[in-house]
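Support request, please re-run this one:
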Amino acid sequence: MQLGLLSIDNEVVEFDMGSGEEDTGLDSEHPDDYDESNEEMAENSSVSRDNSPPCGDLNLEPFEGMEFDSEQAARIFYNSYARRIGFSTRVSVYQRSRRDGSIICRQIVCSREGFRREGSENRSKRQRTITRVGCKAQITVKKQTSGKWAVSKLIKEHNHELVPPDKVHCLRSHRHVSGPARSLIDTLQAAGMGPSGVMSVLIRESGGINNVGFTKVDCQNYMSSSRQRTLGSGGQLVFDYLKQMQAEDSGFFYAIQDDSENSNGNIFWVDSNSRTNYKYFGDTVTFDTTYRTNRYRVPFAPFTGWNHHGQPVLFGCALLLNESESSFVWLFQTWLTAMENHHPVSITTDQDRIIRGAVAQVFPGTRHRFCKWNVFREAQEKLSHVYGTYPTLEVELQRTINLTETVAEFESSWNSLLLRYNLLDSDWLRLMYDARHQWVPVYLRDTFFGEMSINQGSDSINSFFDGFINASTNIHVLIKQYERAVASRYEKEVKADYDTINNAPFLKTPSPMEKQAAGLYTRKIFMKFQEELVETLANPVTLIDDIGEQTTYRVAKFGEDDKAKAHLIRFNVFEKKAWCSCQMFEFAGIVCRHILAVFRVTNVLTLPSHYILKRWTRSAKSGVVLDVRILGLPNNSQEYDNLRRLAVKYVEEGAESTHLYNVAMAALHEASDKVAAAKKQGAERRVHVGSGHRLQSCSVVSLYF
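Re-run finished. Output below.
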């Protein structure tokens, strides 16, 4: 691929000049004849609710001004729209900011846009079908100052025939070998079955060739690539990089499955900064397998979470060269070892049965959630024949999943949907219903996932590397892009820290609680809290029951007569503890408008301490940091565990008052002198004795307040 550059003021526009070739449309015999810069659609993003079409709009038509949370979300939406209409998409022109190099404008076009360039084809190759016919259909999205992406240009008209629903699965941008399909192919291939036999099984299991989601050629390519699945010439580059990083960063951790550089085992690594961040923000984790699909050239899978600004934070990375259940078990166990065996509260992955089995083995006490966007994407494949017949089904399914607020409402809506569209015999829907507790929002509200709203939950997977890794990224480029992504995320966190400290938020009420929260939370988290606090004015409180220590209230939006939409709050006035049926605090760690409305009428003027999650505050990274980088003892040694446990207890007690703090600091200085003296005596003893026995040393624990 060649790039033509054009400077415009402070920006740089990059044009995809291509090779004159194009994706093959329905020509399934040439699956590799497409521009590799046509990146895989990110599987996990969500449309912004601010200016997106309401869920009642069953056409889901794009329009100018329509907003999305990210560029990837816009691409996913347009590709989904293209599937329903009957055409394929690809990315074209994009514009970068000269200031930071980030993409600020993206054009997504019909795959039949433009024309093949004369003389570009190698005459030694067989002739290929001409698919570019100058179609003008496209959508252009630009990044706004708010951070959202808006449609700035839209052309709907095509100059060619559209593909009928029963053929749309052959189009390049709608062909996808999913995780579950990969696992089944691997199993059948290991049993000695060839591509034709494998496709026969897939067609039978999927209920027809239209529901498989890819062609026989795609299956052949995957089976061929799985046999050759190694790092190739880039393998040594990766190993050299890992060794270099470990030499430069004593807290850097890496492991290779089977401990052989020549094996096809998985590779895992994590730097000291990510390990430290996990101590602060390791309550919820996402295992992102977006790049696991066969469209990506490297099977890259990061572990991520959310920091105190609600930004993605990295907890480690893996290269998935082996996708058996035992390999995923090894990967998860190795990751836990690097994180000192501290299990997260929740983990989000795709719904692949192999990953599900590994998670169940390694994280038995962790709440496991499936990425909802992956479920919706799989629905497009499994229900494509029904979507083609009933254009309203997809929107109604998403509405049933996203907008139902109680279990009873979801169950009723789900059953009604199956009856209305005659889907009672759908095996796939039955399987997803059986697993509903792991992906439908109403069943997940009682667990912390660190997202700002219930319905955001797993619509948009935590993509730390969004914009840095794409379909053309090979193993040679991966390391450089990895470092760029880490540096970029660090800069964004520093910027958010600066804004929090130096830009005082505008207070919208005279409430002491709002002023308190403004001084406690980071800027982004405060804005969310402020939104909930302001909404209390539009949510009147009604006393339902007042017996004993617990009082029950009903809170509903003003003017809303539907009692089913009201929320019940149980409040203990003596402990100042409340429980709301929306369970926003349990899910997001931020008090909801309903509880805040009860606080307002019961004269609770400041936020009780048990409703302030430290992970969302300005001081999220303060406190005791037991940094493994400065400890000579192995992580699993008894001495290390004993010292750490006593140190944490000592610091917590020492921080209770100024007097105790002064006493603790004096004792620490005295202890430091004694440890230094003991180390010196030990060194002298080793010199005099002259033995070859090497003693491990321990540096003084760092304390940050």
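Residues 658-689 form the longest helix (32 residues). The chain has 20 helices and 20 strands.
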